[in-house]
């Protein structure tokens, strides 16, 4: 499933290889590295894919300080949903994407600058 709204694009892919390919395609369409994010359910897997794809991870800049600190006390599922909504997705979309991540898939997000 892909979702496009005023600020963000998301695509669920099956694995890290497909995530890297999607990141490369987004770069070809004009997105820069700091506009492309990858997210997996496992934090280490997110780090590895982001490093391989030279993509960004969702951090304080995107989430804001309060959400970033709150994530220290949230379950991984709640943290993932908070990260997804911080990039402009609705709670329903975040729920859908988090369930996909639970099944081992990877989420690639491209965010346009305002």
UniProtKB/TrEMBL annotation:
It comes from Paenibacillus yonginensis. InterPro entries: GSP17M-like_dom. This is General stress protein. Residues 10-104 form the General stress protein 17M-like domain.
């Amino acid at each position: 499933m892909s979702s496009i709204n005023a600020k963000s694009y998301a695509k669920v892919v099956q694995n890290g290889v497909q995530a890297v390919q999607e990141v490369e395609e987004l770069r070809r369409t004009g997105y820069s590295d700091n506009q492309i994010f990858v997210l997996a359910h496992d934090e280490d897997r997110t780090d590895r894919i982001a490093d391989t794809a030279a993509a960004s991870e969702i951090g304080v800049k995107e989430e804001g300080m309060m959400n970033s600190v709150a994530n220290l006390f949230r379950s991984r599922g709640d943290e993932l949903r908070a990260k997804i909504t911080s990039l402009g997705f609705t709670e329903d979309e975040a729920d859908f994407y988090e369930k996909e991540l639970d099944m081992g898939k990877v989420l690639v997000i491209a965010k346009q600058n305002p």
